[in-house]
Amino acid sequence: MADESSSSSRDSRAACAACNYLRVRCNFDCPLARYFPANRASEVVWVDRHVGLAGFVELVNRMRPELRDQTAESLISKAKGRRRDAVHAAADIAQHLLAKTEATKKELQSVRQHLALLRSQQSPTSSV
Ligand SMILES: [Zn+2]
Fold first, then answer.
1. What backbone torsions phi and psi does residue 17 show, to the nearest 5 degrees?
2. Which domain of life is it from (predicted)?
3. pTM for this one?
4. Residues 15 and 26 sit within 8 Å (Cβ to Cβ)
5. Which of 52, 74, 81, 95 could form a disulfide with 89 if both were Cys (CB 3.0 to 4.6 A apart)?
């Protein structure tokens, strides 16, 4: 479906998904083309609803060049999360991570107790 748009012919590059969405001409120096190739149409809509495309460009450009791609992907994934649950997206992720952390702490505690038991059984000073 996106075969002709994802080919790398520079001179006849298809408009990026953002320019398609905005219905504007996509110039070769389009700031959004890097993050929204033609096959990422749905991400454009989510990001536009989440931070707005102008806000997206502003946030990404505020970052140091080496952090821009990472920032863009972070904003896109945040927008994806928000699309799933507009109200609780970030809170759900945080809650999930807290639950995982608690489970891992309990597992670590159990392993330490088991290790302590094994050490006490092997210790030459242990007497019954
Ligand atoms: Zn564009």
1. -65, -35
2. Eukaryota
3. 0.57
4. yes
5. 81
Ranges of each domain in the chain: 3-84, 90-128
Angle between helices 65-84 and 89-122 (to 10 degrees): 100
The token pair at 81 is: 């999360």
pLDDT digits (tens, 9 = 90+) for 8-20: 444 456 899 999 9
Per-residue pLDDT tens for 64-79? 999 999 999 999 988 8
- In angstroms and rounded to an integer, the radius of gyration of the C-alpha atoms of the chain is 25
CA distance 59 to 69: 11
Interval between CA 111 and ligand 1 midpoint (Å): 54
